[in-house]
Amino acid sequence: MLKTEILSKIKKIELRSKKLVDDVFSGKYHSVFKGQGLEFSEVREYVPGDDVRRISWNVTARRNKPYIKKYDEEREQTVMFVVDLSASGQFGSKDVTKKELIAELTAVLAFSALKNSDRAGLLTFTDIVEQYIKPKKNKKHILRLIDVILSYKPKNKKTNIENALRSLNKLCKRKALVFLISDFYDSKFDSLLKVTARKHDLVCIKISDPKEKEIPKYGIFRLQDAETGILTEIDFSSKEVKEEYYKNLNLHETYLDETFKVAKTDVMDIYTDKPYILELIKFFKSRQQKALKHY
After folding, report:
1. CB 196 within 8 A of CB 178
2. Rg for the chain (alpha carbons), in Å?
3. Which residues contact 122 (CB under 8 A, 6 or more apart)?
4. Residues 200, 175: Cα–Cα separation, whole Å
5. Same domain as 194, residue 131
6. What is the per-residue pLDDT across 61-85, written as a single tens digit (0 to 9) for each?
7. Taking the CB of residue 292, how many other CB atoms lie within 10 A of it?
8. What is the Cα–Cα distance from 285 to 278, expressed in whole angstroms?
């Protein structure tokens, strides 16, 4: 992709995502992704029912009556986008590739974060960590994140989610809001996902294309794995071959469902042939309901 094409795509993504943020997501983001701590605000006189653990003993001693420390929610937080740039992201049977969709989703969420004074950072990965960009909060920085997702040429093609999560946990010492965006064509990352979900507020965004699960009704086809480059001839006229193919697909989906469930992480399913805005709205509503129940 030429640089002029990338710049054009970035501009279109910026305009679309900022409009969505202004029209739809700004208030929703603020209500469901709260700050990660409390900061001291002031002291006030104690009233019955206040938490005695917040009594300010120094002020109490000076004024001869009990005073407590008042805290406000610390709004500013760190938002990390952990983005899969493996070769399978180049696929797209509709108007956009999975990678282009990831870039636009990142833009919507990053601009939402910026509007709420949150810092946004990026970790891209294949089977290695390709790039790490420290969190900042300004428009130029967010446009850089989008540019990296669209134009960066990864060194490797395969996927290793476990390695990406391990690196994230080392880089982010404090609790962060983490969006893990991938097609999740990987396995054996369940343990690290569980660890990461305990340490951070983790949201998994699964990107899919409808053609990936469709197989021809009959005929011999030569298929190439985008990440390994391996060519395989498959006879889809065979009932046994079809059954084995679907069996493997279902086993992987079952693994993912169980992994997300055990880790107790939120999951969004986004498809290249459907408007992602509907899934985002559904997700925000679900988070709001959880927050109300918890409250």
Report:
1. yes
2. 23
3. 80, 81, 83, 106, 131, 132, 133, 145, 148, 149
4. 5
5. yes
6. 988 989 887 654 555 789 999 999 9
7. 8
8. 11
